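Weekly modeling sync, notes
Attendees: S.R. (lead), two postdocs, one rotation student

Agenda item 3: backlog of single-chain predictions. S.R. asked that every request posted to the team notebook include the full sequence so nobody has to chase files. The rotation student volunteered to paste the first one in as an example of the format we agreed on. Action items at the bottom.

Example entry:
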Amino acid sequence: MTSYISGSEDDVNVMLETAGVKSIDGLFKDIPEEHKISGLINLPKGISEFELKKELSLLSEKNIQPTISFLGAGSYNHFIPSTVSAITGRSEFYTGYTPYQAEISQGSLQAIYEFQTMIAHLSGMDMANASMYDGATALGESAIMACTHTKKEKVLVAKSVHPEYRQVLHTYMAGRNIEVSEIKTDKGSVDIADLKAKLDDKTAGVIVQSPNFFGIIEDQEQIAEIAHGNSSLFISCVVEAMSLGYLKNPGECGADIFAGEGQSLGISQCYGGPHLGLIAVKKPLLRRLPGRISGKTVDADGKEAFILTLQAREQHIRREKASSNICTNQGLCAIAATVYLSTVGNKLMEIARQNHQKTNYAFESMSSCAEVLFQRPFFNEFVVKIPNANSDIKTLLQKGIIAGLPLEEYYPDMSDCILVCCTEMTTREQIDLLKSEIQNAGGNTQ
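Predicted structure, as returned to the notebook:
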């Protein structure tokens, strides 16, 4: 033990006495014995740095390096301008810590302030915070905010919301004894009849993703009207932030709360993280925003200054009044999104249009070799059904092509269905190749 912990034996005994246990093992008495490792762990002997690097290089070669990917479902392959890494890589940002001391954190606070302004503008909301961990946790925090604001203990969430987001939502709500009821889907989008049937006087909010998990654009205005007619809040979730440059924003659709994922805004996919949680609200909910908010003010000399303000978390206000206990934000990822949006500017609309156009081309191409489900407006993802899809996906993977995401794991009634995604990085030649390979693999020609 003392090989790794600098404390002396006397120090350890004092700590054990304070903790009320007689030994180190006593700290772990609540863990069942069958889950504990007895004896030494069977680890290989230590090796030199040179040997370690060689071993890691060999392991890295086992990673599949596909040349073409049609995988989306919450993490998207978008072009990232060099300005993003050039600025976020600066030591002022890259190694910066939480900006508690405003007097020495003006640069970070200003960048966060700009980020909040951009997200509020993109989402059509009145105020955004300094970011969340990712889209799923932003959604969970949004549901808590709705329940706190309305003093109700039930939320409705569409089954067309990302399955992993719904899992996180259930976890968040379980700890607060808040009921979560899932709204059925009808041909890939919200079943309006089921929504109306499940709304009651206990419902704090209605959660809908648009474009939804299947890429379909939901009728958010209709859903917002239904929710508001029940004195419930409408929470709009956006997993593909690129769509905010092309579609009517959540604020225009009547959303009270916006929760989203910002990975598409200049953040690398990085095997699934870290990503960037977005959250913004209309003015009545301003003081319930979780996490941090950067505000602009003036100092004693009347000069412009930035501060952290309106922090509604347990560390700053009484627990019963706190809307969240989240204690940090994705500062570096938020700055990356700020740099990205500053770089592309109004071109965001053109980039989003390319996503849509290329997906339309893929949709038409795939219609000739597979059954395309859900004939409804979509953004940059759609669902196809192919006989023996799982086998075909493995065959294509061996050729360096990720054909999309198999949906059966998340929706058991959708066997042989694949979620296909295209972005501005997808070429016509790649789409034509996917079509050709699926036909060769035995796809069902229409």
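Discussion: group reviewed the output briefly. The first helix runs from residue 9 to 19.
Action items: rotation student to repeat for the remaining queue; S.R. to check formatting next week.
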